[in-house]
Amino acid sequence: MSSPEQSIHTYHCICTQLVLASTSTLESLKTRSSDLSQILPLPDLSSTSTISHYASLTNTVVDIKPTVIRLEDGFEKRYFHKCGRCDLNIAYSLDQSQFEDTRTSSGAREDVAFLIPGGLMSTEDMKSGKDMDAEIAKVGVKAA
Ligand SMILES: [Zn+2]
């Protein structure tokens, strides 16, 4: 089942819903300078070529209509990816018209998403959070 070369990192919404699986860690992703979101390439999974990076947003609902965001130097159209459980915006796609090579098209660009800072936690973090609660409980028992 699991490939020995690549491990999958999983990330959760702050409500604990699993929302992202990727071979890349969030720390390894490039950061968008304008809003510090992390740039997540989304590979075409139907492609037969070897994929070195895998990522998939899961349990999310993507806006059908874009939200226009006002920036210092203009506007941009964002399609928010919301957590399917708590409705929090965890990522967004940009409109195809925002990119040089698809300037005359519209609709969400599907090969890249931008992760909103602070919206996700890794499964490891979530587990260690639980362990910490257990530790606190233990200490509490000892102190009593
Ligand atoms: Zn959530």
From TrEMBL:
* Xref: InterPro entries: STEEP-like, STEEP1_dom
Name a single GO biological process.
endoplasmic reticulum to Golgi vesicle-mediated transport
Any single Gene Ontology cellular-component annotation: cytoplasm
Residue ranges of the STEEP1 domain?
A: 3-127
Annotated family: Belongs to the STEEP1 family.
Record protein name field = STEEP1 domain-containing protein
